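[09:14] KT: can someone run the structure on this one? pasting the chain below
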Amino acid sequence: MTERGRVAPDPAESELADELRRGQDRSHPIRRRIERFQAWSHKGTRLRRVMVRGSIALIGFALFIAGVAMLVLPGPGWVFIFLGIGAWSMEFDWAHRLNQWALRKLSVVWARWQATPLMQWWRWCRSGPRGQAADNIHGAQLQARGEPVTFSARNSFPGH
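[09:31] RB: done, structure tokens below
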């Protein structure tokens, strides 16, 4: 339970967590290409390994610096920062651990944001009359069973 008696959202059940799991799945096509590239770069000569590792370090650094610059200039700064760390994580364990930590924290923050009354209200507004009627029916069923209801025909829109 969190403050004011609300149940804390489970970040493992959020849409973002599902998307992250799909992206990290070993059978994902992009993941398979990255692993093939890493296998190719690691089984080659020492020069190939150094060149690939150096190239990835430079690409990651360029993306990271561009992201830092975009924090004060127009542009998607945080996206480029995380792209740079993602590029580094292909070759550096510390960057991979940092990336995994950031993804876990992002899942928690996203689940909490999705559980706010503002986001519930926004989803309710976007659902249209058919979705709102379905919410009303579901809420009435929950209420008939004596379960807590965040929205139904018997109370106002979510968050109020």
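[09:33] KT: thanks! The CA atoms of residues 38 and 90 lie 8 Å apart.
[09:34] RB: yep, looked fine to me
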